């Protein structure tokens, strides 16, 4: 499934300013003098949290300015990792692991069930993406919805999860088998 990716669309704000300057300074201070560019990932994460779970180009340009690096280097990092969203996404970001252990345990059918439920849901509620290993392979197949992980899913339990989310019920993260 293709990652939402658009650096030019007109929904991009013209400018971006970090609301929490202290968090930015703390992230940069974790790296040795002269290696501040290494803070690009935490800064992208802070920007995404601040901006409805996606990162506008203006935020990447601001990060490039803060870290004194060429903007294209920030775009490269942001577009490489699936954890960064470069276009607006739904209220629930349903990330389906498609790596081998999950795939062997039926992740394709789980993802199809999620995509089907998302297609029937109101616009802006769900974004379904395929991601690489979520680090819970022993409980495959695995989904991550925003910050919560759901393990041992079947197409039926995935549908049930999507139905609860659609009703605004926040199911407890964990093993849903
Ligand atoms: S392969 Fe799916 S969580 Fe590791």
Descriptive report:
This protein has helices spanning 21-29, 40-50, 57-66, 71-80, 100-104, 107-120, 155-166; strands at residues 92-97, 126-131, 143-145, 148-151, 174-175. Helix content is 40%, strand content 12%. It folds into two domains: 1-87, Arc Repressor Mutant, subunit A; 92-175, Glutaredoxin (3-Layer(aba) Sandwich). A hairpin with a 2-residue loop joins strand 3 (143-145) and strand 4. The structure holds FE2/S2 (inorganic) cluster (FES). Residues 97, 99, 101-102, 133-137, 140, 142 line the site of FE2/S2 (inorganic) cluster.
User: What form results from the Cα inertia axes?
Assistant: elongated
Taken together, the total number of domains comes to 2
Please tally the helical runs, counting DSSP H or I stretches of 4 or more residues.
7
Query: Which molecules are bound in this entry?
Result: FE2/S2 (inorganic) cluster
Rg on CA atoms, Å: 18 Å
Query: What's the helical proportion of residues?
Result: 40-55%
Tell me what the CATH architecture of the largest domain is.
Orthogonal Bundle
CATH class of the largest domain: Mainly Alpha
Strand count, sense and closure of the main sheet? Answer: 5 strands, mixed
Structural class: alpha/beta
Q: Quick one: CATH superfamily of the largest domain?
A: NADH-quinone oxidoreductase subunit E
Tell me the CATH topology of the largest domain.
Answer: Arc Repressor Mutant, subunit A
Succession of helices and strands: HHHHEHHEEEHE
SS strand fraction: 5-15%
Count of beta strands: 5
Question: In which order are the strands of the major sheet placed?
Answer: 2-1-3-4-5
Average pLDDT number: 91
